[in-house]
Here is the input.
Amino acid sequence: MISLRLTAFGLAVLLFVSCGKKDNATQLPSDSETTTTAEVASVQPVPQRFSWPEYLAWKELMDQYYDTDLSGITDSTLLNDIASYDPVDMGWGDSNFADSVYASSVLTPQGKTNYVPHNVRDGKSTAWIEGADGAGEGEWVAFRFKKINPDEPLTSITIYNGFQLSETTYAKNSRAKVVRLYINDIALYDLYLEDTMKGQQFAVDIRTIDEQPVTLKFEIRATYNSTHYADTGFTEINFDGIWGGI
Here is the structure.
């Protein structure tokens, strides 16, 4: 058994959830055949500075300027970015990391391009895209954490919506409009995404009271229409929280 203390904007819920694995590898690791629903909190996003392609370009620029002579640079924004840039960028995920990512379905590869679940955490211009009929409502991608340290709560989740290889691929494929977040099959948050390539950060409060495995599932509940394909997915999903260091 795993005991989780989960808070959603002041709502405290004490949960006792089984973590036994099912035979079906695409199912969440739970002994329960039904999904338990607590009070689900609606969360609006905080738009971030960059889209995923913009972030990758920014990071490449930071790597180029890092630890070099900055005397010729006059752009104050660029100078501030360089001064605060950390190429190692260690943080919450270095001590609380997902050891597996899996999904309800996967779109068939197109040539050399695949859409596997791991794409949402590879730091590249790839994406997980569901492979079910329709626009993907009810499809999901899940992260299994070996543990989340009790003194290091997860406090934010940033989603880069759709297939952000380019503006064209973003428009041609459907994007998620509402995503329901489950913690070990407990529905806790509804995340309302805007139709933008900018990263969208959601404030959450997920705390454990032991160091048992935790599964976070992101289920597509509603979508934005595309210009071509009724295929929905995410380019990247990032986690952050209160980190005590390694």
